[in-house]
Structures are given as C-alpha cells and as structure tokens.
Amino acid sequence: MTVWLVWLLNEIYLLCLLQKSAQDGSQQQQQGTLRGRVWKILLGTYRISALDYVILVERGGCAVYDKIKNDTFRTMPKDAKFTAKVSENMLSRVLNAFVWKAKDHPPSRLLNLSFSYVQGMNVLAAPFLYTMPELDAFYAFSSLIQHSIPLYVQPALEGVHCGLALFRSCLRILDSELYQFLRSKRLPPKLYAFASILTLSACTPPLDELLKLWDFLFAYGVHLNILCIVTQVIMMRDDLLKSPSPMKLLRRLPPLRARAVIEKTVELIPQIPEDLYDMLVRHAYDPTIYDLLQPEHGGDGETEEDDEGSFEDGEFADDEEDEEDEGMAEVEVDEEGLEWEVEVVRWRSFVG
Questions:
Q1: CA gap 165, 300 in Å, rounded
Q2: How does pLDDT run across 280-298, given as a tens digit for each residue?
C-alpha cells in the first residue's frame, strides 16, 4: 500500500469521526452525503445505473419477497431518526432488487457461491439507506455483501460461524481470565455475539455511533468487527466477573461508543498472532478458513473438550444445556421496548 493511500485512508477516517454538532438540517444532509460518498469509495462502488435499478424494481417481488417483508417492518422501529428518514418500502425495494441482481448477474469470481436474502440483511442495508440516497445505497450494499462478506450470507452462514470461532480464539488470547469465566458459565459466543457478527454490529444502538464504527471498518477492513465485539465484551469484564448471572448482561451489549471501541481495538491488534489475524482478514470471503476451523481438519475450531458447541456437517451444533441455561438460545432485551431474538441460526433483530 503506497504512502499516499495510507494518508488518504487516515484523512477519511478522521474526517468521518469528527463529532461536530450540526447547526441545521442542511448541514446534517451534507454530512450524510459526505459519509455516503466516502463509503462508496472505500467499498469500491464505482458503477451506478439508475436504469438498471428501476428495471430490477419493476420486476416485482422475488421468490423470497414475503420473507423480506416479514423482516423489513421490524428494522429499527424504535429509532425515530431512522424511521423518519427511511421507509419500509425503501428497504424492501433495495433487498428485493438485490435478490434479482444476484440471480441474474453473480460476480464472476464468486460463481461457486449463491446469493439470496437471509435474515440480518435488512439490518445491514438499513445504515446505507440512512446515509445515502436509495440508488447509491443499493449499489453500496451490494458491494458489501458480494465482495466483503459473501460467506456471511450463504445458506449455512459459514462466515458467521468462522467469526464465532475466531471471536473465541481472540478473547482467549486477549483476556484469558474472562474467557475462562464465560466458559465456566457455559456461555459460548454463539449466544451473545452471533447477531453482532452477522450484522457488523448494526444490531447495537445507537445508529449514529454505528455509522462512526462503520467508517472505521470500511476504511481498515470489516474483519476488524470481530475484534470490536471482543473489545466491547472486555469493556464489560468487571461487571461480568462480579455477576452471578452474566448472561443477563450479555443479552445486549451496552450502547455503542464508537470512539472508545475503536481506540481500544487498535491497542489490542498487536496482541493477535499473525496467523490468527490472517484468518480474521480472510474468514468473511475465503471458504478455506471454514475448513481450517473445523476440528476434523485439525484446525482451531471447537473440540470435544470445549463446552461451547462444535462445527458438525457445516452447522454450528446446538448444545442442549446451553439452551436450558437462562433461556439463552432466545434472548429478549431492552426495558424501553426494543427486543432482540437471537437464535443459533435463525434469529431476528430489531423486533418491534
């Protein structure tokens, strides 16, 4: 990477993290437009065609349109700023058009993968629509899904399961005491980190803080989301270690504080071994990482000695005792009415 590109990325990062208070609506709109333009550059979204998008929309509902509509109405319903700016129809159009586009024109370098709609994509699309016009949001979202995290949205969610295994390995290295404590309580990452991994932390409010975190992830790599989630758990360590029932705290991560999370994550990166960091970088798009992490391949996946479930036949196996402990296979949270349902594979986020 050339020196000027490093400088440019740092300038973009600092610019997007500026926390100036907007004086009026026009300034807020300008700030959103700037962030949207930067995101498109970082995601490599260079070609945008209004005609192509209109054609996709006019084709009507795709085969999974009912599934899309079943999720869009519950996307961030308690966030007044989001609902005032992004309608359900906008979200459903983007997701429906993506399914048509993926069916007609799969990326040539990913012909062995299939793309459709899976739960969680509604939450991933939402910040794009909040940040940029619908047309731009569609193409930026498509770039993220098909080129940055393709394995996260495959039918078996291989990339997410790899992320869970890597999360566990990173936590074990960065805070062995906390790792052993959570393990002794039979709290595998799949019970509290699944949604955060799948949605790149978009399931953790507030949305304004999430946008700042995505500035960082898009500039330096979405793989860093795993370490950002590890950081958030480590920042809870004192409360977790004192709690007789830590799952009650882990049912939702504390409100996101992007700058604090980013600064702590950057401090932790040098502690990650090079081979583990390499797997972090590649796990969202390289299928060979999934093979390496399965125990039958001698990788760093779950073992029989672990109480945290295991990879079996391409699925992250459920542990019956985990599900019995505090009803952890399904989680409902938030005293203000915002609920979360997190299941091992099938989950819903931002339930109204």
A1: 8
A2: 999 999 999 998 887 533 3
